[in-house]
Amino acid sequence: MNSLKKVNPNIEIAGEYKSSKEKVACQCRICGNEWTAAPSNLLNGYGCPRCAKTGTSFMEQFLCVFLEEAIGEDSVLSRDKKAIGRELDILISKYKLAIEIGSWHWHKNRLESDIEKESLCRERGIELITIYDCCPENIDAEIPKNSRLFSYSLREEKSHKTLRKIALEAASMIGININDFNSWDRVVTGASRRSLPMTTEEFKKNISVTSSTVEVLGEYRGSHTKISCRCKTCNNEWTPTAGQLLRGQGCPRCGKKKAIAIATAAIRKNPEEYAEDFKTANPTLTLLSKYAGSLNRVSVRCDVCGHKWSPRAESVIRGNGCPICANNIRRKPPERFLEELLDVNPHVEILGSYEKSSKPIETRCKKCGHIWHPRPSKLLAGQGCPKCAGKMKTAVRCIETDEVYSSLAAAASAVGLSSGDTISAACKGRRKSAGGYRWEYATQSQP
């Protein structure tokens, strides 16, 4: 596995290599996380899943901590989304300077978005420096004009010499000359701490706030990983996901007892008692029918939106409110829809008003000017202009082999699939792989 060391020296193979598709045991040298992965995925740049969930890289945090030391915390914005309507890794708004930094492996498929960010910054008078490390020798693709390319890992470089140079260059660009800066150890420590995932102790501290009756027994390995815990009230032990605990989910045994107690108490109520408890549990609802038992339905009206429905009597006492109002709360705000759309579909302009993901909205293609009415959910899934799509062949590329097929059918035949539906789904990000391979679109213009 010498090739893997060149791609990602932070991964140690603990298992025996048999084939590129057969998973092997791995361990991250940075955070100690253990997992299994196919060697082909590791060679394609896939790293530690735990570190991948940290949100920001060591390189980004190195520059961020340095600039905070140099010009003050209040002057440096991390992950700002307001300046250009897109997320910027680092922004110093006072000096009109922004920095985007990351691995070539993660950015090579997002170059169009990176170029778009540079253009938006230029329109607003902001100078954007884009930095890629672990780059190949020859890059044929178009990249942002103000880019810095490095063939090696900036994180793994001894003494972080290049990151220091970039940091001092950024300071010089805003008129601050601090070549005698001597707090690099503090910068490295701060960047390391910020870029590491949540520790078990930090997780336990958060749980003491969200679920105070829960005692964490296991080690935190990520929000989607199950973790052993015990109820301080009844000593029940169970294994929810860490994310469920962070969202406030408590002991299932105690929850069941509470539900039974509420239902039992409701059964014994007379109509007057129920009406009183009804108003206490849901002051924005009006009871329209007479109570006849906890398992029978009652007629209810929402005083906020006027919606009428017939829930079970005991469910209202548990605090279940108006389903229409609840749906409106869950509905995505228009600002968030437009923000997400910029990342997924930068060549699409919204002309109509966003109401919900399933309601068609008037849309214009920035490339050809075509106007159509797709569902917002389709746009967020990557669906683009149908007129431009009609001028293209649906060519697909196998990420593992780098082979391009002229159609979905040709790709399906090559890997032994009966149709190209699953490959299409993989290209759209709806599934991880098809036929044992990962895929992406490689659109080719019609002759």
How would you explain this protein's 3D organization?
InterPro entries: CapR_dom (IPR048793), DUF4379 (IPR025487), WH-like_DNA-bd_sf (IPR036388). This is Zinc-ribbon domain-containing protein. It comes from Adlercreutzia muris. It holds the Pfam family CapR. The protein is of the alpha+beta class. It has five domains: 140 residues; 62 residues, no CATH class; 52 residues, no CATH class; 55 residues, no CATH class; 46 residues, no CATH class. It has 19 helices and 22 strands. The protein has a five-stranded mixed beta sheet with strand order 4-5-6-7-8, with helices on both faces. A three-stranded antiparallel beta sheet has the order 1-2-3. Helix 4 packs across helix 7 and helix 4 crosses helix 8.
Key features of this structure:
447 residues; alpha+beta; 5 domains; 5-stranded mixed β-sheet; 19 helices; 22 strands; globular; WH-like_DNA-bd_sf; Zinc-ribbon domain-containing protein
Indicate the overall shape.
Answer: globular
How can the largest sheet be summarized? 5 strands, mixed
Computed CA radius of gyration, to the nearest angstrom: 27 Å
Q: Mean pLDDT, rounded to whole units?
A: 82
How many domains make up the coordinates?
Answer: 5
Give the low-pLDDT segments. none
Distance between the first and last residues' Cα: 43 Å
Number of strands: 22
**Which oligomeric state applies?**
single chain
Q: How many separate helices?
A: 19
Q: Name the helicity range.
A: 25-40%
Enumerate the strands of the largest sheet in spatial order, edge to edge or round the barrel. Answer: 4-5-6-7-8
Q: Strand-residue fraction?
A: 15-25%
SSE-based structural type: alpha+beta
